[in-house]
What does this fold into?
Amino acid sequence: MVISKLATSLVGAIGLFTTINAQQFRDEDLILCDCGIGDNPDHSEWSTSRQMNWYQDINWPSSAYKYPEAPDMAVEVPFKEGWYPWVPTGATATMPNGDVWTAYIEDGTPDGFKAGSAVTTKEGGQMLNCWAYRGRPVSAAINKTINHDAICWSAFVCNRDNHPPPRPADMGSQTSTLTTSSAAPSTTFFSEPPHTAVPTSSSGGQPVPVPTSTPHTGQLAVYSTVSPRFVNWQSSWGAFINSFVWDQTTGNCVGGPIKGQGYTINVECAGVKIDDDTHMTLLLIKALRDVGLKSLWFNQNPAIPGINGTNITAPSWVVMPEAFTIRATDLSNRNVVGYLSYGTKYDGFLSGPCSACETARFNSDFFDPIISAVQGSYPIYNNFTIEAQCSPWMACV
Ligand SMILES: *[C@@H]1O[C@H](CO)[C@@H](O)[C@H](O)[C@H]1NC(C)=O
Ligand SMILES: *[C@@H]1O[C@H](CO)[C@@H](O)[C@H](O)[C@H]1NC(C)=O
Ligand SMILES: *[C@@H]1O[C@H](CO)[C@@H](O)[C@H](O)[C@H]1NC(C)=O
Ligand SMILES: *[C@@H]1O[C@H](CO)[C@@H](O)[C@H](O)[C@H]1NC(C)=O
It folds into this structure.
């Protein structure tokens, strides 16, 4: 595509993010730091300040406990209205030389995965990839209010690479202190309130009993498993969900396997017909779609707002569990009435630290979308129990 390259270099100075040739620091790094962790006696997990460190080209030491060289520039990021800044809505700070940086981060992204982007207006506009890379000491903190010797730890590292910075062998994995015993499933209940018909009076003043439509008090038990290990789906969530193609006659999924970069995802689903408009298969696909939009188990790339209403089209990705199942059982007869799953097969060997279950991700953002989806089976079912668990509890290579 020689022609389009030539055209780009001729008109490149006009648009944001087209001036690739103007990059003065091709190997620059922007580190989004959490500083002063452990300095607040009431909340030892919290950071007391956040800052952005900029490097022409960082050189990471081979030991995880050694500091790299001091940053070329650094700026404190104000804790506006108490919001943690490394989130999808973006945090902006101005470096001492006037360069303005904004980072858009999906903060639930597990370590080692792409978590967002950082944009700057310098040199006509640049965009970096940001990687979740937590827990390496990087520099002294600018904000010394609580502790004069406060340290900054890496949270996210932004660069032009297609991969996160390397992990030294002595870099603690998130899981090293966790036990291998599995947690009990997280559970939530939901009952549809009984629909009571309001008695109406006839013209003669005699109350006419209205037949109360007693809903079938069917109990539906929904059980979901999630792998604690993540995979990077390099397209949109909608594109992934569209791969769940199902046959309305049999209720089964009929789509082929989904090919990702370095892996293949196999999809399975089945379900019974609830009534003329409702099918259990569709309700479970809906449940997965909505869990993927809300839950921290699924991290979508944050949208980068453009200037004057023009959106910047950064490529979509989703960091999601490598395997997921959901099964709906009718408790009156223990029959499975719906099932959906996907699972990943890797082309090569995996390497890296173990991933253990973060049970905190089983919260209302996980359960509520599932409940709303299976409520589509009302009034056949009006009492729902949703249970979720990691399977396996810990995934190692
Ligand atoms: C510095 O840290 C203190 C304590 O966490 C905080 O109250 C203060 O807002 C920080 N300063 C700035 C400029 O953010
Ligand atoms: C955005 O729009 C405003 C008002 O129309 C204009 O003054 C400003 O220059 C525009 N900014 C850019 C970067 O195009
Ligand atoms: C930009 O993105 C937002 C949110 O996704 C959307 O509502 C809006 O219509 C988009 N604007 C343009 C010009 O594409
Ligand atoms: C719903 O199911 C739960 C668990 O089986 C049970 O404890 C509860 O009484 C049921 N509620 C109704 C209204 O049937």
